[in-house]
Amino acid sequence: MSLALDPAAQDLLFREARTANTFTDEPVSEEQVQAIYDLVKYGPTSMNQSPLRITLVRSAEARERLVQHMADGNQAKTATAPLVAILSADNEFHEELPHLFPHFPQAKDAVFGDRGVRESQAALNSALQAAYFIIGIRAAGLAAGPMTGLDFEGVRKEFLDDDHTPLMVVNIGKPGADAWYPRSPRLEFDQVVTTV
Fold first, then answer.
1. Helix, strand, coil content of the chain in percent (nearest 5)
2. φ, ψ dihedrals at 147, nearest 5°
3. What does the CA dihedral 147, 136, 36, 152 come to, rounded to 10 degrees?
4. What are 3-15's pLDDT values in tens digits?
C-alpha cells in the first residue's frame, strides 16, 4: 500500500531529511517563518491548547547571548546559522482558551486553573508543536538543527520569563558543507508496533 503523499514530499519531510550541523549564509526571511507557522499551526494539540511559543534570535547581540548558554558542541553551529529559534512552552496558555476552544470557554479555569496541570499539559503539547515546526521547516525547503544541549535555566532567564519553559533551540537555514552526520539506525516496524 502506498501513501497518499507524493514520494518526493515523503523524502523531503522524512527519508532524506536530516538534522543539519552546518548552514550556508543565505538568510531566512520573516516571510518564510510566517509561511512555516501558517502551515504547522494546524497540527493538533489537546483541547487546541497551542502552548508553543517561538522566539526568533536575529540580532548579533542576542545571538552572542544565546551562544553562551549552548553546550560546547552546539556553540559554533548556533553562532553561524542564518536563523535560530528558541522554542518554549507557555505555561499560561490557558489565557487563550476562550478564543482557541470557544465551545468550552470555562476550560480556562475549570480544567487548567492549577499551574501544575498547565505545566504538564504545556510540556506535552508544545513538544508536539515543536515536531510540527521541524517538519514545517523541511516543507519550506530548509534544514533544521534542533538541539537540547543547552543551559535551559540560563536560556529561560536570558530570553523568557517564569511563565515560559524552554524546550529546545533550533538552527534554521539551507544546509552547508558537510551538514550531515551519518544516518543513525531506526527501529523496525515489528520492534515498535504490537497488535493486541
1. 45, 15, 35
2. -140, 140
3. -20
4. 999 999 999 999 9
The one-letter code for the residue type at 73 is: G
pLDDT digits (tens, 9 = 90+) for 61-101: 999 999 999 999 999 999 999 999 999 999 999 999 999 99
Helix, strand, or coil (residue 146): strand
Beta strands at 164-173 and 83-90: parallel, antiparallel or unpaired: antiparallel
Query: Please, where are the H alpha helices in 44-192?
Result: 60-67, 72-80, 97-100, 107-110, 115-139, 152-159, 189-192
Residue 131 has pLDDT above 90, yes or no: yes
* Burial of 21: CB neighbours in 10 Å, binned 0-12, 13-18, 19+: buried
Mean predicted confidence (pLDDT) in 115-130: 98
In this prediction the pTM is 0.96
pLDDT at 154 over 90: yes
Residues whose CB is less than 8 angstroms from the CB of residue 154 and which lie 6 or more positions away in sequence, other chains included: 68, 69
Angle at which helices 60-67 and 72-80 cross, to 10°: 170
Cβ proximity of 119 and 40 under 8 Å = no
| CB contact set of 96 (below 8 Å; sequence gap of 6+) | 50
**3-state secondary structure string across 99-141:** HHCCCCCCHHHHCCCCHHHHHHHHHHHHHHHHHHHHHHHHHCC
How many CB atoms lie under 10 A from the CB of residue 30? 11
